[in-house]
């Protein structure tokens, strides 16, 4: 009998637990360990931040869901991992042994990289967690009584740009509905070298379409933006040229700001010798397996993926839902094979698909493979994306509630997009 421990119960971890339970023989034990006792649907956080969703709409208590499926659950953060000794020590003091460890701990939000940034000790908000999104909502409600300039965007080193655009457009749509948009000068500040880069070197017409949308919605922008410091109501930004030289310095006044931070790996994972790259992301082979520890696998934002290209202000490549879904399936297949004494052969598809809501319309893109030149390089805008994203939220939460193991992207999203199966392995060699 083997004990498989999954660290993290987010977009990667919960499906991994269900899929392992459905694929592995019953004698193998599965335990999920997570820092908090609930799952939350991260892509809905922008809607929480403007009051379009309530916390209860997107949060599910994990214990009863996993219990029903015969999966163990411990709500306590991992504090350290003894990879040589195959055990994890938790914040509550207990030590859990494992035969296989599946790491799906997502990002650590590196607010400390820009002085004055962050929702707790700093002056910028985030929508990366439901708690952060609720914090924005609390300040936004006060802001609506006395509106002023707003800055939305992504910090140097960020890798997740879709939600930054999404949020700028959602806020703009919300303010329009409230007939307050004219009182809110809105600036999109980004480390991307150009609008629509998205950490992907652009996708199809993303540059012209997103520029056009920003212009249409009267949102100014600063690209190649190295945000250096944030003070109460003021953001200091060095704008670089394409060679990386200083072009202009900006002091942007704001009443409210949401800036996505750069990501790192969580501390307990980053501290394991030889497991991670310098930013704490797990180094894996094409089978999602640690290069240093054959019984450790990783999926989701916690894995190391090289940037698509060097940019004047550092940017990273996004790790999105479809990629995560296929990473999880590859891990399940490979652990099952390993238990049977067979070689690991399954690979994930490192392709990017994103449905970005814009409040009343939306934009979808598909980048296959992630690094250009691509077989599919597709970017489209329309109200159908907004509706598709609402349907996607419903499907995904339904999947987590019921514990079904349908590959949601393969089954629904690709159909919405009218695209055939995209499984084309493009992981590390
Ligand atoms: C605001 C936002 C919107 C996004 N929208 C989309 C979208 O629309 N479409 C898309 O494809 N992608 C989207 N993404 C990208 C990506 O899909 C999400 O970031 C997704 O949540 C990543 O899944 P994950 O499992 O890697 O991490 P997470 O979902 O963040 O899960 C991490 C889990 O690890 C746990 N954890 C952390 N530290 C520890 C520890 N020390 N011990 C134990 N547990 C720990 C956490 O509690 C959590 O349960 C979005 C990202 C953000 C930030």
UniProtKB/TrEMBL annotation:
Membrane topology: Peripheral membrane protein
Cofactor needs: FAD
Pfam families: Pyr_redox_2
Alphabetical list of InterPro entries matching this protein: FAD/NAD-bd_sf, FAD/NAD-binding_dom, NADH-Q_oxidoreductase
GO cellular component: membrane
UniProt key word Flavoprotein: yes
Gene3D superfamilies: 3.50.50.100
One record GO biological process: aerobic electron transport chain
Biological role: Catalyzes the oxidation of hydrogen sulfide, with the help of a quinone. Consecutive reaction cycles lead to the accumulation of a polysulfide product on the active site Cys residues; these products are released when they exceed a critical length, typically as cyclooctasulfur.
Protein name as it appears in the record: Sulfide-quinone reductase
């Amino acid at each position: 009998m083997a004990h498989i421990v999954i660290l993290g119960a987010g977009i990667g971890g919960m499906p991994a637990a269900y899929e392992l339970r459905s694929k592995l023989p019953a004698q193998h034990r599965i335990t999920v360990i997570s820092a908090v006792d609930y799952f939350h649907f991260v892509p809905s956080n922008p809607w929480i931040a403007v009051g379009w969703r309530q916390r209860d709409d997107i949060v599910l208590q994990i214990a009863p869901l996993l219990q029903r499926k015969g999966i163990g659950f411990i709500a306590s953060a991992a504090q350290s991992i003894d990879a040589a000794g195959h055990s994890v020590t938790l914040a509550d003091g207990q030590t859990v042994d494992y035969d296989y460890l599946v790491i799906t701990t997502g990002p650590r939000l590196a607010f400390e990289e820009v002085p004055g940034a962050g929702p707790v000790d700093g002056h910028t908000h985030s929508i990366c967690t439901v708690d952060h999104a609720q914090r924005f909502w609390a300040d936004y409600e006060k802001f609506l009584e006395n509106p002023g300039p707003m800055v939305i965007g992504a910090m140097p080193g960020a890798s997740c740009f879709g939600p930054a655009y999404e949020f700028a457009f959602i806020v703009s749509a919300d303010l329009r509905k409230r007939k307050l948009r004219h009182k809110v000068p809105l600036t999109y500040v980004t480390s991307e070298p150009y609008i629509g880069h998205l950490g992907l070197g652009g996708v199809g017409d993303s540059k012209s379409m997103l520029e056009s949308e920003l212009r249409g919605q009267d949102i100014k922008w600063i690209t190649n933006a190295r945000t250096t410091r944030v003070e109460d109501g003021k953001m200091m930004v060095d704008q670089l040229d394409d060679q990386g030289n200083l072009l202009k310095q900006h002091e942007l006044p704001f009443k409210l700001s949401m800036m996505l931070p750069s990501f790192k790996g969580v501390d307990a994972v980053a501290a394991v010798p030889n497991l991670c790259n310098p930013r704490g992301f797990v180094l894996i082979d094409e089978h999602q397996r640690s290069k240093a520890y054959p019984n450790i696998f990783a999926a989701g934002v916690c894995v190391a993926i090289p940037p698509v290209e060097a940019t004047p202000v550092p940017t990273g490549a996004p790790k999105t839902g479809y990629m995560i879904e296929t990473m999880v399936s590859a891990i399940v297949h490979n652990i099952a094979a390993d238990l049977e004494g067979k070689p690991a052969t399954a690979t994930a598809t490192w392709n990017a698909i994103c449905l970005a809501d814009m409040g009343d319309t939306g934009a979808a893109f598909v980048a296959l493979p992630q690094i250009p030149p691509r077989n599919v390089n597709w970017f489209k805008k329309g109200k159908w994306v907004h509706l598709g994203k609402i349907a996607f939220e419903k499907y995904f939460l339904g999947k987590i509630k019921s514990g079904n193991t349908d590959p949601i992207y393969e089954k629904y999203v690709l159909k919405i997009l009218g695209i055939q199966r995209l499984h084309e392995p493009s992981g590390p060699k």
